[in-house]
Structure formats: structure tokens, C-alpha cells
Amino acid sequence: MTADTSGAEATNTPLQQASQLIETNMQTDLKFPVISELLHASSSGEYELAVPPDWQVVTKQRLIPLPDALFEQYDLLECRCFMGLFPEIKRAWITVDHRLFLWNYEDESDFYSFEDQEQIIVSVAMVKPKPGVFVDTIKYVMVVATPLEVFLLGVGYDTARLAGARGGGEVTLFATQISVPADGIAMTSIVGTDDGRVFMTGNDGGLYEFAYQSEDGWLTKKAKKINLTSSIVSYFVPTFLSTRQDTPALSMVVDNDRKILYVLLQDASIKVFWLGAQGDEFVLVHHHRTISNSAALLCPQFNEGTDSMPFEIASMNVIPPAESRTLSLVAITSGGCRLYFSTVKRMQRFYETSALSNTPISQQPDVFEIAHVRLPPEPQPTLSRTLQGRAPRQILNVHTAFYRNGTSLLAHTWNEDHDSIIGAAPACAQILARIAKQPRATLSELSSSTRIEGRTWAIAEIDPSTSSEARALNDLVTVSSTPVRSFAVLSNAGITILDKQRPVDMFRMLISQQTLQDAQLKEFINTFNLNETCAMCFTTLCTNEFSQHSVSMQVLNAARRILFEYGGVPHFAETSAFSNGVSARSDESGNADATTNEKILLSGRHNGLAIYLARALQPIWKQAATVSRTDRGKAARLHIGIPLASLLEVQDQLRRLQHFINNNQRFVPDQLNQMPIQPANSTRSTADVASCWQAEAASLGALYELMSYSIEAISFLCLLSDFNLAVISEGIAEDQRQALSGITFSEFVCSGKGRDACKELILALINSQLKQHASIDSISDVLSQRCATLFSAADVALYKAFESLKLAGETEEGAEARALATEALNLLTNIAGTLSTRQLREICSAFEALGQYSAVASLSLECAVQSDPHDNAMAFWGDGAPDNDPREAIYHKRMECYRCVIDMLDKRRDAVLNAKGLSSLPSTDALFQFALYDWLLEKDQLSLLFQMRGPYVEQYLSLEPRTIEKCDMLWHYYIHENQFGKASFVQRELASSHDFEIDLAQRIEYLSLSISNCKIAIDMVRGRQTRLARDLNEEDEINELAMMLRESEDQLEIAQVQLEIQQQLRSLGGHETPVQALDRRLFTVTELYDKFAEPLRLWDAMLLIFKASNHDDPQLVEEIWLTILRTVLDDSQLTGLMAVASKVSLLGSRLYPSPAAFPLPLIAGILVELSQERPQEYSVGFVSDTLVHASVPHWAVFEALNMLYTKTAAGAQNSNTAVSDMLAREIASLTTSWIDIAQNGGGITGRDSENSPNLAEDTMPVMVVDEALSQYIINATLSNNGELKNELQRVQDRIRQIF
């Protein structure tokens, strides 16, 4: 696995897929229903026949006879004898009159007697000591009751000092001098709570508390007996005078979690006492007197409580909250029935998890009622019996019973000399099969009967910790190191040790037969399903040495054979090679997706391995591998969060599994091993079959990798413990220590965070050892031996580089320091991709301290490249950095690498902020160049960016996100590089942009610059054509530039109209919104007309729009001109015709020669018309001079006026004569003006316009003018207008004199 510590690990790597598979199996194991979910009906009585049929729920391991010394004491019996079990100290206790004996049944020889008092002992109990009363040596307190007094003995129990081969610990009794008088009452039952309270029941029916403290108080005694059930009056009446007699109690049990005390009375009723949330109260909350009647109502088959079969309760057993939140007590009757009681209301019991998840466990009981009746098993079960079966059950005679975590043991009287221990336990496979078919399954149990010698006095579980409540009901959850639950049954013949049998024990029993029948094996597989059967094979094959004596070579060989021959093959879902049975375990644990999107079911061998591996890792999987704790008087330091014993136990199982896989090359069967690779009836192609095997091989490889990593991770954690992690962590920074704290074992093995943590811890370990002058090679050897995969060759190079840098910093010789720094750089360059960003920063700081600045840049950039060999970060950046993209982590890793270089440059900016210094940096990494350019912009070093002439400047300035600053820099860069065409294109884009906040004036400036640069670009291309041969590509380039030039010029013209509109609106005032809108973008002529000019009656702008668009609408244009000129003429503040002349001149200079916006005949006619209306203001030459001043050439004015004259003269009205005369005078004035200009050097030639082209821009057609004057003279003669005639003749004569 690569040591990429960037946190940018690929998703769904094989190791992560294996981790998900392991967690899926763990969750499946935890989904086994709790006991209350299986007892949702009012009663049940279903028992299954085991496979094989002679299987026992518990098997008798050995009988430990009572020691001879005890029989000798028994011969001296004068009055009474009692016996019982103290599993807490691995002892049986026996009282003979006043003598108390403790016998180590584990050792079978240790025998201890207590005879320091003379009274007959009537009861003995082992309880927890009250905190703060006794010394730490006293682990338990033994309560001994006699008719005269009840006293306490301190019990010291040292498990470290084992006696004998099997152990049992050393017991020491201490006299405490704490006692209370019994007042002649025989205490029949004694129990204690976890917080030290002691309760006793007497044969007088009273319930007492033995209250004690360390010393006598002013008003309190050191010890006292409190009658909890008597009234206040009873305190003043002597015991022998009391006449009140309550029903005596038979036994008591304490629920320490729920703070409840249950008391069983001789009349088979049960009292429930609430001890308070803090355990310091005593309140009777319920007294159930009709238990048998309630049971009969729930179960018609319950027949106890009749004359033929009296109702008695043989045992009460607490159900802890971990086993059920709703059921709190199970009472076992003398007939073998189990009565499950609840202190939770009926409706709440239907919501085991949801309704009670936030409810405190210790609260006062609401009710106390029977929730379920479980009928007894058969004394000798042979066939499956169900509640629906109406056959009568054989009556049991149970006198002692035991229940814990789903397992029930009933001592049934077989005959005078023997008892039968009837065991019952959940049938896990059958329950899981039913859950797969229906949402809620009922309890189904396996039962068996084992005969023992003698009459049973007590039953106890030898080590209750072996039945973890979270997994006890599901016996399938077993690995090779899972301890067997063992029970001690005390009788007058001795102690019988019984071991509870699990499905794996059933499996071993089955395959231990000399001749294993295939039918039996297939029946077993059908019962437990193929996956679980294969998991049992692994459990058997990976048995530890402690259990090897019970597993024969025949069993091991049979398990191996079953694993390979019956383990199945991977196949598509519709071609099942084996019937895996029905299981509640999700198929997801063994699925893979083929390329055809069909589901592939992996083999049972694969799934069995995944199940076994999950169960092996479960104890440590979610535990914190490292935790931060504050030691006394010191700062917070790291510690190993998992007990070393748990780590080593799991590692031992994994190593055995690894050993088995390594020694069995046929673990993944194929054709070479002559094993079937597909079912005989399969129609699949060879390619499909191959895809199935590829999926299985990939998943098996991932599981093996996970197993190997887990083994090495455990070794590494143990190594850290050996070197004292608390001391090592003193050299870790506080923030890093917090990051390392709380990492779970699963994260430590499977995640990038865990790999980072591992490397940080290795680095801290090596630094710690280097401080102690240890050799790095010796440390590397240890790490390579114990966790070679976690500590790779790259790690060796890394730490050697650290050592070189450390030595370089300590040496005073410059050449030696440089050599060591170079050596470190060479080592680090090869492993740059494995460096974390924190490590890279530390290394760069070390190089900077040595003055090796080039090494900082070289290593950082190499780290970036090796961390992203496929350049995914650049692709991510180029795609616009989308959210939730897996490439984002790689991008950030590379940016952190570049940050090391830029931070170094920033510290030395006075020395490096020049083109030469920056150009020396490597330039092949585009992403680094972009980061460098960002830094230059941040430092306002625009000129340096151009001077560097880097290969990525243009790309950097062109890519998103684009800003106005970057775009300005881009066209400046193009001009700097003589790429004027590209600069013109960028400037035009800026002018047309909608994204940037650019005002209209700036947009016009960009268009002007674009036009100028485009013209320069065209000239440069034409210049190249002049120097070189004609190139078609260059012709295309010129055409493209010419087209862009035309478009830009048109756009500039429209933009100027837009500017005109904006200025008009500003001058009008009150139009802020449209003024601002005109700044945001460039509008088309249509938009300008429709949105601004026409609605706002901007007449001048409308004419400009007509010119720009060349839109021809004579009628509308005439209306606009009339509106404009009459508005000016009618304005009282203006000078009449003079103002009209000024307006026409202004507009003409901008609109002429556009016929659409400045139709010359129309405008000339309007001027004539206005002159007629204002004769007092009119002077000859007004019309012609106005048009000439509007930049209209003399010849064009002549043509317009002559056209009007001709049209007017043709009319018959008298009014037309005045207009004609005025037009004739205007033409005479125009001609005189033109002659004066010509004579003053205006460039007029004497060529006749009809005979040759006019070369001058304002040349009058002399012949046409002369002919027109002649016609005007004739008309004036006819109209008897001598004055006009003489004036026209003078002009004509002047023309003829000159031309």
C-alpha cells in the first residue's frame, strides 16, 4: 500500500471494501434479537431437536468429589448442614453446625476451615464491601448468620497467587469485629448490592438490613440491624413479645442495574422493593400474590397451582438490561416453567428500543406482572415439541434452577440418588431462519438432559464474564478463542462441571465421527447455512493451544476437507451451486458487482472467512487505539487505549488464520486444483465464470490484506507500549496529539487518517530514540521485523533524511553541512510522494535554516508531482473545482506543497522579486506557476509577470475565474508579446462583457483600442506578406481580422449612440435607472430604440439610430425632423431661425450623408417652409448657409435647392412665386459663396462636370449651375421681377468670367 499521507486516498479501495464487509458482518451479529423480542407472545413452548440428535445443551466434563476431610466433618454433624457456591472466589462453601469450610473446586485440594465461633451457622452469603470501610485488600465480605448474631468476615482474594494447576486464587479471611445481634431469628437468605447494602430475611417473616460503617458515630453505632418491614411500634416491643408474624421469605435477588430487590415468600408470592435511583431507599412498590393464576390466564397449558401439582417457585434470576430493557426477572417453577416478569407497562414493552432508549434504567417500577410463560422442556427430549402440540408433557420436579443470558439449567429429581440437569438454550440457526422469513420470530430452544450424581444444592456459572450480554444469546458468534461457558453444579456427591455446547461444538461432534455421512453434513449445512458452517471450519482450524487437546487431528482434517469440498464457488445469483440455507445474514456480505451489473454471490468459503475475521476483530475494532490522558501532575500524554491482553489475544487468532491460509494454496480453488468452478447445469460462458472468480479473488485478497495490516498494527501498538508511548508523546505538539487521540483501531488500519497517525507515531518514536543517541538503523530493524508493511523502505529513507538534516544543523563546517543537506534531499526526492504536508513543512523549515532554498523548491514541487502522478488536480482546477469531487483532496495537497515554496519566497521577497530570481524556479508544473502568479498579483508585481515570460502566463490569465484585472493583464501581455490581434479580441470581449462592472465610457475606450490594435495586426500581417512568400493562412488571418475590424467599428458606432442616449438622459435628470442600465452592457440598435429612445422621446438619438442601422422610414423621419426643428423654433428662450440653423448644423455634422437619418431635400424644404413663416427673421442665404454649415457640400445643396425650385416653379399658385424667388436667391447666394471659396484657394477645378469627373470634394457642376441660372432669369423676366433678374445675371456673369 502506498504511503500517501495527504488524506486524498481513493474511495472504495480494496482495503476499505474489506473494512465495509467486516463491519457489515459485525452489524449482522449484533442484530440478533434480544430475549424480549422473541417472547412477544403471551406464552411459548417450542423446542427443537439438535443436529446431531445426541447433542447436549450442556455436557458433563468431570465430577469433582467432595474432599475426604469434609466427609469426616460431616460425620461429626450434630444439628444442621448447608452448602453453596461462591463463584466469585472459585470456592464451594459448606457449613457443619458451627464450622464453615471453603473448598477450592478449581484446585480440588485447597481446603479452608473457619471455626472461631460456637453458634450454629444458618446462612452464609458473599457480598460486595461498602466503599471506604475496609482496606483495599478486602475484595468481598462474607456475611455469616447464626441464631445469636450476624457478623462480617473480610475476604481477601489474590488471583495472582494461583494454587495448583487449574488455579482458583488464594483466599484469606479477616475478622472485622462488625456484627449485629440476631435476636434468635434464623436468617434464611442474605443478599448484597453493588454499593455495599446487605439485606437479610428471617424465619419470622421480617426483612432486615445489616447497616455498618467504619467507626461508631456520636449518635450511631458501627453496625446495626434494621427491620425494614415492621412498623414504628415494633421498635418499642421486644422481639419475643411480638405477635405479628409475616410470611417468611425463601430467597432474595438484587437487580443492581434497576435498583430493585425481589423477595420470594413461602406462599409463592413475590415482593418488589424499590431501592431508589441512588440505591439508598427502601420502598415496597408491588406484591404479586396471584402468580399462578396470572400464568394460567396467559397459558392454558400451565397446570401448576392445582391440588395434584402445587405451585412453587424454585429460583428467581435477574435479567440484566443488556439482555432486555423490558423483562427484568425470570422465575423458574418447580414444574420447570419459566415466568418472565416485567416492571414496564404493557404498551411500552412493544417498543423495546425506541420507546425505552431515552428512559433511565433505574426508575421506580410502574408495574410487576408476568409478560410471558415459557413451558418446560422434556426431561428426555427426542422430538421437536411445539406449543401447538397437544400431547401432555411429562411433569418435572425442579428443586434448584439457574438462568443467565438465555441459558436455563433445571435440577430435576430423577431418583433418590441422582438428579437430571435439563438444559435449554436458544436455537440460533432456527431463529435466524425465521427472522429471514418474517419480521418477528418466536423463541425456539434446544434442550437436553444430563444425569448427575447426588441431590443438587446450587448451580452457578464459573466465570460470568464469558457470557457477554451483547452476544450471549447468539452462540454462532464464536471464534477460536471464545471461552466456553462453564457451570458448577454442587450436590452432596461433589461438584459436577458442565460446559455449554455451542454450534461449533455441535459441528466438532459431527465431524469427529469415524464415518461422516454426507446426508448428516448437508442437513447440518441446511440448518446453519453454508456461510456459518464455513465460519465454524475456520473456528476449528484456528484453535489455540489451550484448546488443542480437545480437537483431534481427525477433526482438523475433516474441517479442512469440508471447507474446500463443500465451501461452494462464486456464481451469478440465478445459478446457485449450493443451497446456502436460510439465514438472516445479509447477502451483501458476499456480493460483488459484475461488469454486466448482475449480482455475483461469492462462495461460502469466502463469506465464512469474512464472518470469522469480523468476529475475531470485534473486541478491538471500534476501540480507540490511542487516547490522550492527563497523568497526575503532568500534561496530557498519549496512551494505548486497548488493553494489551486484548490486542495479543486478537493477534494470536489472526496469526493462526494467516498461518492456515499461507499453508493452504488451494484456498482459492481453480481448474488447476481440479475443483469445480461452476455448477454442472450452468449455462454461463467462460468469461462470466472468470468474472466470478476474479470478484472472489479480489475480495479474498482484500480480506487477507486487512488481516495482515491488523496483525502489524497490533504489533506496532505493542511496540509503542514497550517503548512507553506516554514518554514518546511528550515530543508531539499539542494539536497533533489531539489529532492522534481517539483514533479507532479500524481507522488505524483502514483509513488515511490512521496511516498518517502511524507515521506520526513512528516519527515520534524515532525522534525519542535519537534524543537518547540510539542508532536509527537499529530502530528501523525493530520496526521492519515487527511491522514491515507499516514501516516501509520509504520510511527508512525518510528517517535517515531527518537524521542527516539534524547532523547538518549541528555541524559547523559549511561544506559538510551542504553535503549532508544534499544527501537528505536525494533521499527525500525519491519518496516525496509519501510525505505528509506537516512533514514537508518541517523538512522545508530545516532546509531554510541551512540556507538550502533551492532544495525547498525542488522537494516541494517533486512532492506535488509524485502525490498526483495523473495530474488530477489540474483537471479538477480546469473543471471549475466542482463540489464533493474526490480530486479536491489531491488538489489541496498540491497547493500545500506550493505554499511551502511561496512562503519561502515571501520571506526572501527582497532577494527574489526579480525576473532572474523567479525564472530560475522550475517551470514545468502549470499548477505551481498559477499559484506563483497569484502570489505576484497579491504582491502587485504585474511587471514581473510579463518579464518572466513563463509558458503558462497566457493560460493563467485566460482560465476561469476571470476578473477585469486578469483580462486587462491579458491584453497588455499580448501587446507586450506583439500579438495585437489577440489583444484586439480581448479588448472587444471586455467591451461586450456582461460579467464585469465596466461603465459605458470604458467600453467605448476598449472598442477604440480594439479597432486600433486590429488595424496594427492587419498591417503586421501584410508586412510579413511583403517580406515573405504569399501564404494562404495569412490571407485567412487578414480576412478574419478585417471582419473583426468591421464588426468592432459597427459596434463602436452603436456604442456612441448609446453614449449619446446616456448623456441626454443625464442632462434631462430623473432617469437614474436607465442611465445605470446603459453602463452594464452594450445594447443593439433595436434595444436602444425600443427601450430608451422611442419611449423617452429622444429625437436626436432616434436619428442617430436610423443612421447606424440605415433604417429607411421617410414618414417617421420627417415627423422627427419637424418635431425637432419646430420645438427649437417655438422655444421662446432661443433666437428663432438662428437657433434652427444651429440645430441643423449640429445634427447634420453627425448625420450627413445618411439618407435615412438626414434626407437633404426634406430638410431643405423644412428650412424653406420655416423661413416663409418667419419672414422678419429671414435673410437671403439662410437655407444654403445652414446646410453648408451642416457639412453638406455646395453641389449637394445646389441639387436639393434646384429640385425644390423646379418642383415649386411648376406649380400654378401665386404663393409658389414667392417661394421660387426665395429659392432662386438662395441658389444665387450659394453660388456666390462657392465662387468666393474657389477664388480664395478652395481647390475648385475648371473642368466641366458633365465631360469629366470632378476630382475635388466640393466641386460645383458649373454648366448645370449656369443653365439653371439662365432658367431662373427667364422665369424672373416673365414674372417682371427685375431686381431678381439683375441679381441672377450678376452671378451668371461672374461664373462665366471665371470659368
Automatic annotation (TrEMBL):
Residue span, Nucleoporin Nup133/Nup155-like C-terminal domain: 603-1278
Coiled-coil blocks: 1038-1065
Keywords from the UniProt entry: Coiled coil, Nucleus, Transport
One GO CC term, this protein: nuclear pore inner ring
One Pfam match: Nucleoporin_N
Domain Nucleoporin Nup133/Nup155-like N-terminal: 60-497
GO BP field: protein import into nucleus; protein localization to nuclear inner membrane; RNA export from nucleus; transcription-dependent tethering of RNA polymerase II gene DNA at nuclear periphery
Keyword Transport appears in the UniProt entry: yes
Protein name: Nucleoporin
Species of the source: Coemansia spiralis
Taxonomic placement: Eukaryota, Fungi, Fungi incertae sedis, Zoopagomycota, Kickxellomycotina
